[in-house]
Design goal:
Blueprint: H1 2-7, E1 16-22, E2 29-31, H2 38-46, E3 51-53, H3 54-64, E4 69-71, H4 79-93, E5 98-102, H5 106-117, E6 126-128, H6 135-144, E7 147-150, H7 152-159, H8 167-171, E8 173-178, H9 186-206, E9 211-215, H10 222-230, E10 235-237, E11 247-252, E12 256-260, E13 266-271, H11 273-286, E14 291-294, H12 298-311, E15 317-320, H13 326-338, E16 343-346, E17 361-365, H14 371-378, E18 388-393, H15 398-405, H16 407-412, H17 425-438, H18 443-463, E19 467-470, E20 472-475, H19 481-484, E21 494-499, E22 502-508, H20 512-515, E23 521-524, E24 527-535, E25 540-545, E26 550-554, E27 557-570, E28 575-586, E29 589-594, E30 600-605, E31 611-621, H21 624-632, H22 637-655, E32 663-671, E33 676-683, H23 691-697, H24 699-712, H25 737-748
Parallel strand pairs: 4-9, 4-10, 5-7, 5-8, 6-7, 8-9, 11-18, 14-16, 14-17, 15-16, 17-18, 21-25
Antiparallel strand pairs: 1-11, 2-3, 12-13, 19-20, 21-22, 23-24, 24-25, 26-29, 27-28, 28-31, 29-30, 31-33, 32-33
Helix pairs in contact: 3-4, 9-17, 11-12, 17-18, 22-24, 22-25, 24-25
């Protein structure tokens, strides 16, 4: 067994925290639908498909029966055929109808288009339509395509905005397919939700009412999420009839590495996760297994590939990440599909549904952000009925260590819960502007597609001179809102990061001051660069290469004001609120910290403007009787509530499909607005993205998980696995682990389900 082999390596020091062998599962088949066109039946049989899995038949029957469908069966279960089968059959039997497939990335679009073309069913009717499509081909595609592969950006900025050029296409649109639907979260999900409503409205104008088909990783609330994203009801397919090979899953926790401080005392500093990833990959490769490794950053991808190539020069080892040319990515994908690579080291770009051929083992370095994502990555090994190995290597991170200590929760827990905020005013302002620019709307239409808040947004657009009213709201401005609307964020202001005349990258405005202030260290492809100048007027940051062995972290002073409560939960000793609020951030200085150890090397003053963020928040007060309990234990309040803030942010992704970086927080020993100790947790996006609202509703589960995490962590003073935060603007000072545990224990007595 693979766990025995790893236990006998020279680098094994009790890192295996959990091993689970998942038995093979046989297939449950259904006959091919009786109404399939003979040419499609022939194409299927040429691929060896004489019958289909039960969930594929369920999908076919629901789709052809006129239902909207969301498919959330596991990785490698054949979700693609669930929608390809009814679409291909319709493409043959209903030549006038049209179809749109929407994918979140170009690489995935190309892979799926090739898969569909392999059936050789009317290939002259199937085209890609994205930013790489030559302009001279676009008019032909609009006139002649039956099915187009595109992405949300192209749908927003090119197709919907020029819908008159697509009149025939929209008139005949039958199916709209969104693959990898779980990929949409945060403000991106809010934009996609509004784009879907714009699409529905344009289709209604041209006389069509297309069905929506979503394919997603497993979620705990697929029907609810699909409904919230579209305003429509969905048939959920979550039971798979596909076979699965034996899976050997290992949770691997690297041993802590330490250093000696100035007093010659040994300090546990970090876990050498990259070293263990290297060792495991070498071992698996020496066993003859084809391996894919998922580090958490582009830097780690490149560093691991370099080390592996030096050790295994006779093996085909390649990286895969963003930043490569299309030609480079296609070459690597082709080699993967053919099984020509021994090791591929990839960012989560290959987590999505690209068919990468036969792989034997997956090594995931650090929790990828959700349970679904980790299962997606594990699903890359042993596809079909082949056996596979999946190894999750933990970092010094709260959620990594949470699942190392509670692996049974990973296997047994409910899946990720996806959320979307359809009332983000900043998203709606831009999206309704786009909708009105496309076609005028009546007040009833605005309310139907965008809700009551939409009517208020239209009022703001009128007040700003963009919109006029004459029986309908219509776009009055000469400016096009589509180009100015960034659907992958809320702000189009991006700063170029330049080394001389070379552009290394871009940074959105929300993170410019914290990451590109003068003196900041910026990492690019694993190399450190020092910011020499931040040119705010021309939106450029100029950097120079540096050899410094440190990174920088901005100190943040946060003020909360303009609070507008929307919901309140109140008991004798607790007031728990969901509210809109303004978050003002001051950045008076930054700290230089040593790589790996985090040791503080010095501080430098900053002179930066304040930033303001109007967003959704959840906040709660702490009764004086609990403050007295802390005092009796000799614990200072400020360290206790600061630690409490950190732990609550850290565990939020266990409940909701989000990243801890999607949230911010601040704690006050005495807050003027409440006249009590108060903790705020807020969405880190303008207008909010729905996380704070879910946390308000799930407050009991949220606090339970936080208490369980901090009480069971074996550290004495607090560590990255419980109360320390890698993004704390106050250098994790002050923090008191015992105080946070006491407060959580007290507050849980106040919260009912």
């Amino acid at each position: 067994m693979i766990d025995d082999i790893l236990r006998n390596t020279d680098y094994y020091k009790n890192q295996i925290k959990h091993y689970r062998r998942i038995e093979k599962k046989g297939a449950t088949f259904s006959p091919l639908p009786e109404d399939l066109n003979p040419s499609l039946v022939k194409a299927l049989k040429e691929k060896g498909i004489k019958e289909i899995y039960s969930h594929q038949r369920e999908a076919y029957d629901a789709i052809t029966g006129g239902e909207n469908v969301i498919i959330t069966t596991p990785t490698a279960s054949g979700k693609t055929l669930c929608f390809n089968l009814p679409v291909l059959n319709s493409l043959i039997t209903d030549p006038k109808s049209t179809y749109i497939y929407i994918y979140p990335t170009k690489a995935l679009t190309e892979d799926q288009r090739k898969r569909l073309l392999s059936y050789n069913i009317k290939p002259h009717k199937i085209y890609s339509y994205d930013g790489d499509t030559p302009s001279e081909e676009r008019a032909y595609i609009r006139r002649n395509a039956g099915l187009i592969f595109t992405n949300p950006d192209m749908l927003h900025i090119s197709i919907l905005s020029h819908h008159k050029q697509w009149e025939n296409y929209f008139y005949n649109l039958k199916y709209v397919v969104f693959d990898e639907f779980h990929h949409y979260k945060g403000t991106f999900a809010s934009h996609i939700s509004a784009i879907i409503r714009r699409l529905r409205r344009i289709c209604a104008y041209y006389g069509s009412n297309p069905q929506f088909i979503f394919s997603s990783a497993t979620l705990s609330n697929p029907g609810e999420f699909a409904h919230n994203m579209t305003g429509l009801d969905f048939h959920v397919i979550d039971k798979s009839g596909a076979p699965s090979g034996e899976k050997n899953i290992i949770f691997w926790n690297p041993q802590p590495v330490g250093y000696t401080d100035d007093n010659n005392e040994f300090i546990e500093a970090f876990r050498n996760t990259p070293k263990d990833a290297y060792n495991l990959t070498v071992t698996l490769t020496d066993l003859g297994k084809k391996v894919i490794v998922f580090p958490r950053s582009r830097k780690r991808v490149e560093l691991l590939v370099k080390s592996l190539r030096e050790t295994l020069p006779y093996k085909n080892i390649f990286p895969y990440r963003s930043g490569y040319t299309i030609e480079e990515r296609r070459r690597i994908e082709k080699q993967l599909f053919k099984g020509e690579l021994d090791v591929v080291v990839a960012t989560n770009a290959l987590e999505l549904g690209i068919d990468v051929g036969a792989l034997d083992a997956v090594v995931t370095v650090g929790y990828p952000g959700s349970v679904s994502s980790l299962w997606q990555q594990f699903g890359r090994s042993g596809r079909g009925d082949r056996d596979g190995v999946g190894i999750f290597i933990a970092r010094d991170d709260l959620i990594d260590q949470y699942y190392m200590e509670r692996p049974e929760e990973f296997f047994d827990k409910a899946l990720d819960r996806s959320v979307v905020n359809n009332e983000n005013e900043f998203v709606l302002f831009n999206q309704i502007a786009c909708a009105l620019c496309e076609m005028p709307m009546t007040p009833e239409e605005v309310q139907f597609y965008f809700g009551d808040k939409g009517l208020g947004i239209v009022g703001d657009l009128i007040e700003n001179g963009f919109v006029k009213y004459n029986n309908h709201f219509y776009w009055y401005s000469k400016e096009s809102p589509h180009i100015k609307t960034n659907i992958r964020g809320t702000n189009m202001d991006e700063f170029e990061i330049k080394q001389g005349n070379k552009v290394l990258g871009v940074c959105d405005f929300a993170h410019v001051y914290s990451t590109l202030h003068e003196g900041a260290v910026y990492l690019h492809d694993g190399e450190p660069y020092k910011v020499a100048e931040l040119d705010e007027e021309n939106k450029k940051a100029y950097v120079t290469k540096t050899e410094g062995d440190f990174y920088t972290n901005v100190h943040e002073d946060i003020e909360i004001d303009n609070i507008s409560r929307e919901q309140t939960y109140k008991t004798k000793g607790l007031e728990f609120n969901f509210a809109m609020c303004n978050v003002k951030t001051k950045m008076p200085y930054y700290t230089m910290k040593q790589f790996n150890t985090g040791k503080i090397l010095g501080q430098m003053p900053l002179s930066l403007p304040d930033t303001n963020l109007y967003t959704q928040s959840v906040y709660f007060t702490i009764d004086n009787k609990y403050v007295r309990i802390l005092r009796e234990e000799g614990i200072l309040l400020d360290g206790a509530i600061h630690a409490l803030e950190h732990i609550l942010i850290g565990v939020a992704p266990i409940l909701i499909n989000c990243d801890r970086n999607d949230l911010g927080g601040v704690s006050y020993p005495l807050f003027l607005y409440t006249d009590k100790p108060t903790v705020f947790i807020y969405d880190g996006y303008e207008g909010g993205i729905g996380i704070a609202k879910e946390l308000f509703d799930l407050r009991r589960d949220w606090f339970n998980i936080a208490f369980d995490t901090v009480s069971k962590c074996p550290c004495k003073m607090g560590c990255p696995a419980c109360i320390q935060s890698p993004k704390c603007g106050n250098n994790n000072q002050p923090l008191n682990k015992d105080g946070a545990q006491i407060l959580l224990d007290c507050l849980l007595t106040e919260i009912d389900y």
